[in-house]
Design a protein that fits this description.
359 residues, mainly beta, Neuraminidase, five-stranded antiparallel sheet, four-stranded antiparallel sheet, disordered N terminus
Amino acid sequence: MIQSIRIRACVLSLGVCATLACTIGIAPRDQVLTSVTPLSLPFNPTALPAPEVATAAPTETATAIPPTATLMAVTLDAAAALPTETATPPPVAGENLVVYHSGIVGQEDLMLLDPVTGEVQSLTTSDASDISPRWSPDGSRLVFVSTRDGDSDVYIMDIATRAITNISNNSVLDRDPVWHANGQAVIYSSEIDGNRELYQVNADGTELIRLTNDLAYDIHPSVSQDGRTLVFASNRGGVDYDLYTLSLLSGETKLLLAADGSDRYPVFHPDGSGVVFISDRTGNFELYFFEFATSLVTQLTENPAIDGAASFSPDGKYLVFDSNRTGQYDIYRLNLETLAITRLTNNEDIFDASPDWQP
């Protein structure tokens, strides 16, 4: 369980949030933060090399969810199996790889990165936009968003065969896919009913279930490791986004965290003790950690740039995240014991974002 030291302790506020604002700036390429106190966590890095050197790397078991939410009266086309990607070498060998998307906006591909060696390999090479990849719980498949059918749908890739299947297959905007903890279903946001709600669909594209029903936008879901709870961002409390939880057993939704500014992209810690998220409560988007037991919020990064979506290493000792702190978006690693930050990608004029660490 994480024992957080308050750096900037934010008292829960149910008041009206301020107007969304963020400042884009430039920060040193690699930095060890000195103005932020490290978390007092039981972290003793063994999975990754130590000490951290800030250098640019080479270019209870979950069960199926009962259908507690209203079944949507929509017609789904049969999940369409797409041709396997153009023949490419086998995926990068190793464990705990990081997947992310990279490329000019609108033409991104999925990439695999070994955070230890810096080795990078392409997983897709389409002319479409392939973004927001997320590992399945067993690390054998990816769910991601692509425009390869002409609109934004949710797809699954089998890593071993590179076979790709469209599991949402509709004409509306589908985004933010994540796996259910049982590995048998995917949860994502969609505009099927005209505004952004959260939905669940089986990994074969069957049985679409609406999980939320609100006039606001519900986005950025993350599923707890026991498969019982969903945390997500929503602007149902006003203009800005706050964090909410949804019980996947009862369907009950509760406000988790609200403050001035927008809180987005929550992700559960592997031990279930809290969530990391991004917030612009101080004027620009930084990384924060919210601990369930104490309701304390700890700021993890502090710089003039935008720090984006993060993902924990399997042991919970590191984060990977995207940031434009050099003027371009790259992937970075944050040591949660020392708060040292290492830049992992360095692609000039290329957008590297939305990393996810293999379970």
